Amino acid sequence: MPLPSPFRSPRWTPYLFLFPALFILSLTVFLPAIQAFSLSFTRYGYDLTQPPSWIGWQNFQRLSQDPVFWKTLGNTLIYLMGVVPILVIFPLGLAILVNQKLRGIHWFRMAFYAPVVISMVVAGIAWNALYASNGLINQCLQFLGFAQGIPWLTDPHWSIWSVMVVTIWKGLGYYMVIYLAGLQSIPLDLYEAAALDGSTGWQKHWDITIPLMRPYWVLVAVISAISATKVFEEIYIMTQGGPLNSSKTVVYYLYEQAFQNLEISYACTIGLALFLVIFTLSLLNLRLTQGGSAWQKL
User: Fold this and answer.
1) Superfamily of domain 66-297
2) Do the Cβ atoms of 295 and 85 come closer than 8 Å?
3) What's the Cα-to-Cα distance from 136 to each of 19, 123, 129, rounded to whole Å?
4) Tens digit of each residue's pLDDT (9 = 90 or more) over 163-200
């Protein structure tokens, strides 16, 4: 069946190709997001057979007075500040190292990338064993002269930092590959010209690599920030948000309210607050890394 004459125009061609993807996104992302936003103004849960009842801004008032929410928001920001700088800087160094033309360098790339393909469930169980009171880490500390092992996952002062290590360990290889793709797109002529000018060793990376890799570390900064803000699996497997909510993040608190307490409408309110936090952090990240031009484009 031929298309109606208005759709035969070339300007409609891109939209016709985009339509299937937009239709699927509408069903799986946009419509659920709109529904979650509307549920934030209702009371819905406990008895899921009852329809939502309109309560206005009560969920938002409850959220503003909820000490657990503010605790989880603080934990999320701590997680963000602890994970993102490391995942922006260290993978670039790894990418530079594995970009060298050395025999067997592909094995090193595979070794650094291996944690990425490991299931978080498997990784969490393995790290739980390492963090145990009689685990390998504490045994190494005792061998080095520390009398007592550290309660990595059961001490409120250590729990969230211990989980951060797992997130960093699992993300290094992923962001390394992004940087590696950028490094391999830089012409070798630039490094040869820099060598003629007397730039050698790490100086050439400071003069050439880092400026030309700016789009890539901006991408890594944004992706890692969003991922750190939405962290859930590590918390669920390793600490369940404890002890004393010390490692509970906003997403884990949302999960508790929605699937354990069946407060669906309140969980939607938490999700809306999380969206605003992620959106603000993304804009701020782009503002700080790309300057005013990116801000104007947004």
Assistant:
1) MetI-like (1.10.3720.10)
2) no
3) 53, 15, 8
4) 999 999 999 999 999 999 998 888 878 877 777 777 77
Segments making up each domain of the chain, as ranges: 66-297
Token pair for 30? 């946009």
Q: What's the token pair of residue 275?
A: 């969206």
pLDDT (tens digit per residue) in 106-134? 888 899 999 999 999 999 999 999 999 88
Q: How far apart are CA 281 and CA 222, in angstroms?
A: 9
Q: Return the pLDDT at 297.
A: 46
When pLDDT is averaged across residues 277-283 and rounded to a whole number, the result is: 84
> What separation in angstroms does the CA of 179 have from each of 11, 59, 168, 233, 283?
36, 43, 16, 25, 22
Tokens in use for 273?
A: 């607050």
pLDDT score for 88: 93
